[in-house]
Specification:
This protein is an alpha+beta fold. About 25% of the residues lie in helices and about 45% in strands. The strands form seven sheets. Strands 1, 2, 3, 26, 27, 28, 29, 30, 31 and 32 form a ten-stranded antiparallel sheet that branches. The protein is elongated.
């Protein structure tokens, strides 16, 4: 008892137990909760979590509130029935606050995606992580939060101390956007080529963009199609071209792939046979096939014969650096380029680089050429349609692109932009920005952290029921089988509970091969039972406290000889 007496007389303890401490705390908490609610309703729930509920200062408010409740409970401690309700109520509040923080720190909340017939147990968490292999070959995973409040210089320094021998984090942008900037290059590679920066202006728009061969040869702006071509008078419809490069990355031969033209070509000991030309290529069972998904991915599959040896090769127009044969064929390498064709249903502008200060422009209207002109750098020309002026702001005969990463503005009711992290190789001092899913030399990746379930799930069948006459889902559910042989149905209102994990039916979709997929939300809250217990204690305390205030109940206690 002397300890309690001395504690209650302590000035710090008195302040922590006082209303002077609790009222500002409650004001701060209300303001924080209001801010979080506004962020969630205006932008996204994940933004509210990052900016408020996961912030260190929010947990500090909860800690001080917990201490205030504990101090006030001790300060008013008396062994009477009247104070018993007060004590039980405050005990319930203490349990709830502590369990909430424990859930936020230790709980798991992520997604598990399975295709029909597929089996898995890997949960992709909402938290980001840096995954890499250290010098001993061990796989290391370091959590990296994109919350501004959590990535303090001290926290960043602590992360870098663990990875400094291999990598160094120099910057992190929680919400990023990337843009391409062209720079002149003296190296001729599969990803370099002519580049122009085009500016289009009329009373309604002002648009500026880079065109580069081969990475971004064309841009479809709706009513207007922009394209960069290497030969200004070649606008016939072709399937693209196959170019042979020598060891100095200089093109020696180009072969047009026409609809009904030859598919076998010869060049200095090379025999090339084009087996497939695909507009929307995807890989299925190690073969290139046409995809059913929207979007284009032009590619060709071919057989190459050189020096009595036969090779298989696959080339993608949008990924010029990809090859199945990185060593080439006797010093030669191949590149597939998609030829820009004139659209028949819109206006089009084709541009050819003549030199570092001049371009040739060819204007088309619904597939027919209507104007041809030569333009100098920064010279404005009036187009024959849309009341628009066009000018070329920069010209590079050979350019490489650098990606610039900067802070992205947040849009109302839109998904959050991805984070970006700037990594430096500690040995070479090379720097590179990584966004979620990016890898560096197969040894470093920046991606969602994962957690393995103690059991596996196999998706047997996904079932979707639509509203009559529509394709809108009325309900959907998944039939699954666990590795113990048990079968379950997971629907929107009937989750699966197993080994402390709760698995909900979240959404659905298709994988890259067109197979039906089911997305499950996986949650584990180690403090769930403690929360239930705290709620019961809090409810019981409120009941006792309310009864103890009742005059009728007080008279009944007096008849029993119990003091309030």
């Amino acid at each position: 008892m002397n300890f309690l007496v001395n504690l209650k007389s302590n000035r710090v303890f008195k302040f922590m137990a006082s209303v002077r401490f609790s009222v500002p705390l409650m004001v701060f908490l209300i303001v924080a909760l209001a801010w979080g609610t506004i962020l969630e309703s205006r932008y996204h729930a994940d933004l509210a979590k990052l900016r408020v509920y996961d912030a260190w200062w929010f947990e500090l408010i909860l800690l001080f509130l917990w201490l205030n409740i504990l101090a006030s409970t001790i300060n008013r401690f008396k062994v009477t029935f009247y104070h018993f309700g007060f004590l039980v109520t405050h005990l319930g509040l203490l349990i709830l606050l502590a369990s909430s923080v424990a859930s936020n720190r230790l709980g798991i909340d992520g997604l598990l995606i399975l295709s029909e017939g597929g089996t898995g147990n890997t949960v992709h968490l909402n938290k980001m992580g840096l995954q890499f292999v250290d010098n001993s070959g061990a796989k290391i995973s370091i959590p990296v939060s994109r919350a501004n409040d959590l990535l303090t210089p001290l926290r960043l320094s602590a992360i870098n101390m663990r990875i400094k021998d291999i990598w160094t984090i120099t910057n992190l942008i929680p919400f990023s956007q990337t843009s391409r900037v062209a720079v002149a290059s003296t190296n001729i590679t599969a990803s370099t080529g002519p580049a122009v920066e085009v500016e289009l202006i009329n009373p309604f728009i002002s648009y500026k963009e880079w065109l580069q061969n081969p990475l971004q040869k064309s841009i479809d702006l709706g009513p207007l199609y922009l394209a960069l071509t290497d030969v200004s008078d070649r606008f016939k419809s072709t399937l693209g071209s196959l170019t042979v490069y020598n060891s100095a990355n200089v093109p020696e031969a180009r072969f047009e792939l026409l609809e009904n033209g030859p598919r076998t070509f010869q060049h200095k000991g090379l025999t090339i046979r084009v087996d497939k030309v695909l507009k929307k290529a995807t890989v299925l069972e190690k073969q290139l096939v046409e995809s059913r998904d929207s979007g284009s991915n032009p590619a060709i599959a071919m057989s190459v014969q050189w020096s009595g040896r036969h090779f298989k090769e696959s080339l993608f127009a949008d990924f010029p650096d990809f090859t199945l044969n990185p060593g080439g064929f006797g010093g030669y390498s191949l590149r597939y380029e998609k030829t820009a064709t004139v659209p028949q249903d819109k206006n089009a502008l084709f541009i050819k680089v003549k030199d570092s200060n001049q371009v040739e422009m060819v204007y088309f209207e619904k597939g027919s050429e209507v104007k041809r002109a030569t333009a100098n750098l920064n010279e404005k020309l009036l187009t024959p349609w849309m009341g628009m002026t066009v000018s070329v702001k920069n010209i590079f005969s050979n350019a490489a692109f650098e990606f610039v990463v900067r802070e992205a503005p947040l849009e109302v009711k839109a998904s959050l932009p991805p984070p970006a992290i700037l990594i430096e190789n500690s040995q070479t001092k090379e720097k590179r920005w990584l966004q979620p899913g990016d890898r560096w030399n197969e040894s470093l990746s920046f991606e969602n952290q994962t957690r393995s379930l103690p059991f596996t799930i196999k998706l047997l069948k996904f079932i979707k029921t639509d509203y009559p006459g529509t394709e809108t889902a009325k309900s959907f559910e998944s039939e699954v089988e666990l590795n113990d042989g048990s079968r379950h149905t997971i629907s929107m209102n009937e989750p699966l509970k197993k080994d402390g994990f709760t698995i909900y039916q979240s959404s659905f979709g298709e994988d890259e091969f067109g197979n039906q997929t089911s997305t499950f939300s996986v949650n584990q809250d180690p403090a769930r039972e403690i929360k239930y217990f705290g709620s019961i204690v809090l409810g019981l305390g409120i009941m006792i406290f309310t009864l103890s205030r009742s005059q009728r109940f007080g008279k009944w206690l007096k008849t029993l000889g119990v003091s309030r």
